[in-house]
Each structure stands twice: as C-alpha cells, then as structure tokens.
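Minutes, structural biology subgroup

Action item carried over from last meeting: produce the structure token record for CPSF_A domain-containing protein (Meloidogyne hapla). EB confirmed the sequence was re-checked against the source entry. Recorded below for completeness.
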Amino acid sequence: MYSILHETDDATSVNFCLWGKFPPSINCLVTSGGKTLRFFRLNNCGNSINCHQLECLLSFTMMAPIRGMAVISLEDYPDFDALALTFDDAKLSIVNINPSTMSLNTLSLHSIEDELLREGYSKDIHHPVLCADPESRCCVFTVYGFWKAVQHRVLEGCAVERVSNIPNDVFVALANGDLYILSLKTDQANVVRNMQLTKAFEISIPCVLTSFSTNFLFVGSRLGDSQLLLNHSRILFNEDDIFLYGDDFCKSFLIEENLRQIVRTYKFELLDILPNVGPCKWLRVCNATYISDAFRKNARDVYFDMMSASGHGKDSSLCLYHRTVRPQIITSTFLDEAQQIWTIGRYYGDMHKYLLISRERSTVALELHNDMVELDIPLFCTNESTLMAGDLAEGNVAVQITPTSIVLVANDQQIDCISIDSSFPVLSASLNDPYLALLTLNGRFSFINCLQNQIFILNSMLKHEKSPITAISLYKDCSGLIQYSDNKNIEMEESSPTNEKPLFPRSDSLDCSLIKNEMDEDLATKEQFNGEDDIDAFLYGVTEKERNKPQHQHESQKHQQKISWLTISNELSNNANTEEFVERPSKIVPNFWLFFARENGNLYIYNLPNLQLVYMVKKFCQAHDVLYDDVQSAIDDEHRPSQQSFMSTPIILPQPAESLSSDTIVKPEEKIFELQVCGLGMNCGRPILSALFDDMVIKRLPCTVVIRENRFLGPNGRAPVEAHEAEDRHRQRIFPFGPLSNLSNGIFIAGAYPSILLLKRGEVRLHPMTIDGQITAFASFNNANCNNGFLYLTKKPENMMRVASLNSDIDYDCSYPHRKIPIEQTISQVVFMLQSDLILLVTSEKKSNKTVCTIVNEEKQVETHDREQNFILPSIDSYKLRVSNLLVWKSIKINKIQLFSTEDWKFVPNYEFQLDEFEVATACEEVLLTSESTVSGVKNYLALGTAINYGEEVYVRGRVVLFELIEVVPEEGMPTTRHKLKTIYDKEQKGPVTSLCSINGFLLTGMGQKIFIWQFRDNQLHGVSFLDMHFYVHHMVAFRDFALACDLYRSLSLIRYQEEFKALSLVSRDLRPTAPIPMTSQFIIDHKQLGFMLTDELANITLFNYLPEMKESIGGHVSECFIDSEHQRGIQTCYFATLDGSFGFIKPIFEKVFRRLHMLQQMMNIYVPQPAGLNPRGSRAGRPQKTGTNQQISAAKNIIDGLLVMQYMNLSSQEKTDLAKKLGTSKYQIIDDLTELIRTASHY
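Output recorded by EB:
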C-alpha cells in the first residue's frame, strides 16, 4: 500500500513566547507552537478605537517541532534581534528575519549529537532546554538532559514573569488559571523582608508569560486560548498623604518607577485572544451542520463534520470543524445566460441600491429594496453586456461600463453617458474611486478621473504596442506602506533629519561607490573605537563609541538613502517606544497606483494621477518569490523619468535585467488574464497582489489556487488554457469584497474550485467553497433582508443566482473553519450518536477527597478523615452520567456523561446518571449489537466502561453499562427533553474495563491484559470467548471481523473473531522489540487492500500491511470533475488531530503517483531549502524508542511526506519546470497529482 501523509493545518497552541526587535515592525511578539513560528505586532487601529489587537506579520512552518526559543543580539546585526531555536536531541539554529525578502534567514547551525554524551541512556531522552541571559548576549541549552551550562529552576505548577519597569512586582500564574501579583517588600538595604501575594485576574491555563511595552501581558497557553492583557496599575497613597495633600494632588503626583516602597494596585483588561483548538483528545465524525436545504436535496457529495474534545479544565470546549465554506442560502433564482453580477449604488445605512446582471448581449437592471424589481425608468444601458460596474463619489454615483459606453447614475437619474469608439470596444475595466481605467481591444487603455463632479478623460499612448495590455488593476493604498518620491525630494531629505530608516539596497547595476565609501568609513571608525580605554567605560558607564553612535548611524542613513529604493515608513520605525504601534488610518494620505500586465508577461506599476512609470517587473508570469525591478529597461524607456519608488512591503526587490525580448512569442500559459490589487486585513493595511495565469491564481503568500475544471494534462498532452474561453471579453474571476458577515474583507476566487481568501488577523486563510459546484460570478450584497451577505452565480447543473450569507457562529479566521462551544469541564470522552443526532460527553471536575478505603477481614471499609481548613486535600476524578442544561460547575470535579443537542447547542435537561466515588470512565462508544426487536437484527446502544480504584489494598474492579436512547413526550417548553437514556444493563466486572468496541454484532471489551467478547441477549451479556494479550489493552477499533488492539507495552495487535467457530484469535502483531508506547490506531482502506495506522507517544505515524507472505509486512514508517471518481470511490482518507491543535490526513495513492511524488520528495530534499536549515529527511524520519538499534523505522519506503511535496505548488514556474525535468516528467503532471490529493481530502 502506497500512501501520503500531509499535515494540512499548523498548530494553534503556544509553547513559547518572546518580545524582541524584528523587521518589519521593529518590536514584535514571537510565539511558537508545534512546528509553527509566528511574529505578531500590536495593532491599535483594529476593529474598535484604542483597542489593541495582535496582527500576525510573518509565519513559518518548520520541519520539526520547536523545543526551545530565546532572543539574542548579534554584533553583525545591531538593528534587529536574532532567535535561537532548539530542536530534538541536540540541535540549535540561529535565525533572523531577512529584511530584503521577509524570510527566515539561517545564520548558523549547531548539532552536538554524540553517543558519548548520552551516558548510556538509550531512551527517554529529554528535550533541550534553552536559556538566554537578560541582556540577550548569549544562550545556553542542555544536551540530552545531562550536560548543562546553566542551572535552570522551574517553579512547579505555575508561570512567572516580572512586571515591566517595576522591579519589586512579579506576575505569578497558577496552573488553574489564577493570575497573582507577588510584591516584594524591601528595606533601605534592598533586602527582601516580606512578600505579598494578591489575586489580580483569571486567565487561561498558562504555559508561558511575557510582559512587554510597559503595561501589556501576553499569556501563552497550550490548553486554552492565548490572551493579550492590558495592565492598569495605580499607586496607592496612605490616609495621611491624602489628608494632608488631597486626593487630586496624589493622583497627579509623579513618582519615579524605580522607587521600591511604592504600593500599587493592578487592574487587567482582556484585549485580544489567539484561538486554540488544542489539545484535541478525540476526533469523531458527525452529521454536517449549517447545511441549507438547497444543498441537501441534490447533494453533490457526502457532507459531514469533524468533532473534537479540546482544552482542559475550565478551558475545555467542543469544537466542530468543516473544511469548506457552507453559505446559508436565503433564496435562489434561475437566471438563463447570466454571466456577471454587480451590486452598485447606496441607500442609507450602506445598503445596495441596484443590481446589474450581465448577459451575452444584454444587461438586466434591478432595483434593490425589500425585493428585486426591474427599474421603471431606464437608467442603465441594457442593450449590450456589462463589463464592470461600481461606485464613484463615495457611493453617490453608480457607474456602468459597457463595450461602447460609460453610464453614470446619481439620485435615481442618469447624469451622463460617455460614448466610446466602437472600432476598439472596451474589453475590461478597473474602478477605484475616483479613478477608472479602461482596456480596449487594441491593447491600450484610457484613464478617467472623476474629481469634484468633473470627469477628465485621458487617452494614454504608451510604448510597447507590439505587446498589448492584457490585465489592469487600480489600487488605493490606505496602509501607508507604498510611498512615492522623486530625486528632488531625496536630495532635500539628505540635508534634513530623516524620518525613514532605509532597509533595502538598490540593484548591483547601480553605482557602488557610496557603499564602498561607507564601508571604509565604518572600518576606520571601528578601528578608532577599538582603541578606547576600558576604564572609562567602567567608571562612567558610557563609552565614546556609544556617545557617537547616534551621529554615526545618522550619517550612515544619509549615505544609504541615496541608493535606497525601499524603506520602512515612519509608523514602523518611530513608534517603538510609544503606544502608537500602527499609524492611525486617519493620519495616512491614500495613494493611488495603476497596475497592468502586457501579453509578454511583464508587470508595470504607475503612480496616479501623474501616470508615471515607477516600477517594471519582467516575466511576472514566472511567479517568482520576490519581484524585481528591471533597472536597465527603466533607463531605456523614455516615458519613465528619473525617479524612485519607496515601498516598505517585502515583495519588491531589484535584480539585473533578464535577456528576454518583448517580441518573444508568448505561450498561452504565460498570458496574464487578470490582475487584482487590494488591501486586506486590519484597516485594509496588507496590500495583496493576485494574478490569474495558466488557470492558477498566484499570490506568493504562499497561496496558489487551481481553478481549472479539468486536468492540465489530457489524452493528447497539455490541455488548452480554460481562461481562453472568454478571451474576447474579460470575465472577472477574482472578486475583492468588504464586510461579509463577521469578516471585514477578503477575496473570493471564482471558477471550478471556488475559494475564499482571508487575512483578518494577518495569517493567510484559504477556504474552498465547493458545495455548490462551479461559480462564475460573485458580488457583495447588503440589504434589509440580508445583512452583509453576498450573491453568486452557479453554472452546473443549472444557472442559478443565490442570495446567501455566512453563519456568524463559525470562525473563519483560522486554517480550519470551526465553531467552538465552551464546556468549562474536562472532557474525557465524546461520542456522536448518529440516529438521534446527539453528542454524548463524558466530563469531569475536581473534587476534594477525604475518604480512604481499607481492607478489614476481607471486607472493604471506607473511612472519612476531617482536616483543618488550611489542609490541602488530594483531588480525585469522580464521574457522573448526566443529561442537564449547559451549566458551569466549579466547586468539585465530577465526571459525568451528558447528552448534547445540536438543535440548540445545549445539554439535554433533567437527566443525571451518577458514577460511584473513585470510579473513572475509561471507555465510551456507540456499539451495534444483535437484537431480536429490530428487522435488521441489530440495534444501536451506548456502552460505557469504567474502572474503580480504591487504592493499593483493594482489587481494581470495573463496570460495563449499556444504555438505550429512547424518545418520550418532551416537557413543556423544552423540546430536547424528548431524548432520554435508559439503562438496560449494569453489572460489575472482575477487572477494570479499559477499552471496548463492537464487532459483527458482538461486544468486545478489553479488561487489563485480556480481551473478552460478549453476546447481548435478553438484556444480558453472555461471554463467548476471550484472548490473553500482554499487559494493558487501552484502545480497540473494529472493522467487520477484524479488530486492532493497542497494548501499552506491546504496540499493535490484529485480532479476528470467527463466529462459526466462536473463536477469538490473534492474527498478527507488531514484532518490533522496542516500539514506542501506542496512542491510537485505525484501519485504512485502498480498494482490496487493508492497512493499519498506528500513532505513538513519540509522534510517529506508522503504517502496517498484513501480508503474511512478505517479510517486511511487520511494519513501516510512516467528486469533482478534476477527480477520477471511479478510482477514488474505493479509497479511504484517514484524518487525525494532534495535541498542539494541528490537523492532517493519510490517504492511499496509486503506485504511479507514488513513484512520481517519491522522486519529487528526494529532489526537494536536496534543492529546496527549509526554515532554520533543517534537513527534511532527518527531521521527518520516525523516532525509535531506543537509539542505536537496528530498526529501520526511519526508512519511509511507502509513504510520502505531504508537508514537503506540497511546497512544490508554491515554487516559481521555472523552479517547477526544472525539478520536473530532473524527474523526467512534466510540471503539469505533478500539479495534477497534488491538486487531486487536495481536492479529494477537503470536500467536506
């Protein structure tokens, strides 16, 4: 069996967090969880005024989990900090952010892996512990847990962080989520005489704490949501001071922060959270939620949800996931021949006024109020199709662009109609108030400026007429990141103090004398400073070098500014020590830019309204990671005067000109059909450039979407580019949108695989919306009947226009759209009951224990011991089966089973099943057992297995309880009470019930080291057979006659029950002598092949086949039109979730696909660099329990690493082609393979 393992979603937990200086925002909060490293900045201009939010600027996925992190300073990089990252065993990487490309730059690698340092230990290797000194000058990490440079103490059960700028106060966060302030009382000699602990706030269960910027505190959590807190501290004055000087004077009195006798009070405010869905303890499949009736009638596929029990304690929750976006359909209308739709004009409250529906040779204009009705007065042109529509004058003027006219409508009347030469009709248009750009048939464009109710038409006559324009886009920059300046302004800035810090050098083709002079000057200055007397620094604390440093840096900036093309704006460099982390939108003057692409694949950027060329990128269609300005072509172009463009965005960098002629014959796959530039994220402050060519939407984030309906390779080779179908008339496929339900903005990508791209918090989120098939058009729609909704056109099976909205309960600002339901109790088990559409939860709470069980004369006696109030009692888990309302239990820890209804997302009221004291629910499943009361001969029951442990002196027992879900007459006003659990079997067993499942109508139970099989008849369980295993069977899963059993110390076993012989036998097992402790197992099916998947405590995923004739069978390592549905029908995809909140899948693949991807994986191991310099082959290999063994667990012969090969989709076109040639195949063949894998695993 050949398969692929792909980790689709990054971790959401936070294991480490730090504060340091990193580009592009100077001061950044750095977090790491699992394999993911993220850089955040504080955005004080978020959804509300003066509300600070965390905005993710950069995110990187490593090839191995990060085990430690520290901020350090390097002499070679004085302006920014560096990060030290540790990985398993003894690996250390020093990295920083490359300001030129905004990528993770690996500075040095250190590996201290030596068998001699293990001191004979072959297993249970400790993770490295990394520490840095307070000044961030050096770092020390442990090697194998024994070799240490610094002794590091950890306060058990809590996290500690010093309060910023307050030396005597310390934050202390306990394991239960209570935040305390520890105040140290000192005397005049600075000796601690007393300590005061005061509770200040309730937070998530913490893992790490970081305080920064005077009054901010970040709480990183692995068990709940991470939180950003604002600390309001106040100085307390005694009564004598207030009596003598007055309260107002005391409040206004300034006291230095370094005084140690000041008494303060703290008040915390929750500003923002980073959602976390980890740890995922259970992953179940349940019925799909939020499915409109329009999709249920003619379902294109089987829709379902994933369900997990997440968090712990008070941070526990029930999470429901679905990969695709499911719109809530309000109404649907059949529209024959409809091609495009637009909503334009504005009523009060920002509601849309008109709807234009474009057909092949006509346009339908509707008025939007309570209903959609045709206009009584002909305001728009309806005798030809519409190419573009939008708003000018802040929504007061509606604009319609047709091939031969421009119609302007305001105040319910047509104010102007501008005719266009019919010899060269308009092909496409781009509108951004107050500008309008038109692209005509002859490859030229006209530029229109609508300013102060006056319209100016400028016909542009640009060069390069041999290569016509193919796509245009107008962009209004409200972020302040893109700035424009000519040479005169630069010369003026050189003679005055600058507010901008240069970051990027110009290309190598420029004069480098300035750089050489600057380097010589730096060298001379450095030699002068090296001779300084160290006694001065010791006596006075400030050396001559430090006193002259600001002036020296200013001179360096002046020289760099002469050659700088890209700079950091003022808000990024000068706000490091203020509360204004991001410049407010009201202070930013918007800039306008014109982007267009020619048929030769070049990209041009003009500033507006001067229409001056400021940037040109050759062969933009190659989709390079970094876009380069062609300096040589800029010199030769007489229409481009001497000027410079200042952009602090990291997507543009200079490079030497390519030796490609503009007269080169352009291939269809290199033609750029559409450009779209828009601002996403908070305050639209993240400019995004999207381009459509070769039937792929490229964004380089990395983010690539294949919108084709059919494969790239057909029976006769490369299939035609599907975008050529509408070559004679542009049809928009990339649709930016504004407010949409709980989303502020985003991009909708139409086509055969429609998707939505979001950047709400800064991280890229791409969600497919394939539930309705191919979508041809999209438009925002705000109406009294549909608040912040949208319209879209479908293509198959019939042309429908749907009015839809998004469910506000779903969180789309995450890699996995989900709904998180707080439970506030630890969830031990979760079961979905299919027939009744109910969710059963086994929850628990802490309970103080005062009883002790002893044996007297072979009888159990329970003694109660009363203790004083301050005595700390031990806590136990007490379980209860309960069906009740969604309440908050806080006093004790009671384990209970509860029914959860998906109708109102609350617990079913008025039912409770109490488990005994000292009893623990160990297993809970919905089982299918034989029954004579049904026609099918089987019936669904709920089976519960428990273990009762009173102590060492009492033999451990257990119970098996069977419940039947029945329907009764509901109580008045409580419709969900129609469901009740009826106990039909409850009996104590001779041992603890550690696992259970059903197999062919029989109940299979694991009791310690034994497995029993039972037949349910006459409301009794009758023993049929048993099987002795090894030590402790803690997990079982069945498929037909087979079952997988996980033993705590003997890995995985395959057992089989033969009903005709009443025999339960061991078929095969994992023969590895030192296999890690197993966690869970599952079957995986590939047509006639049956495989077994196993996960263990070392995070290995192992895939087994049962092939008795083959020696190596004992183990190994770990309905779209695009998809061949006949071959995919017999293939099962296995999904998994992890403790750090990440997700992935394992899927069988065909041998031919495996051969191609396996060779691609080998090539990418060599040619594609990875973050932090990790080697994918070594980082992704399985980790054996013991080192130095002869196990070949790391040789992944039959499984593909999806995390590595999926990076192929984000390479440039040339890199894809080069790698494919080395493999002897085509890049389109590889893209087809990867696209099919993505689509088949994300259809739900």
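Discussion: Residues 810 and 819 are 5 Å apart (CA to CA).
Next step: EB to file the record with the rest of the batch.
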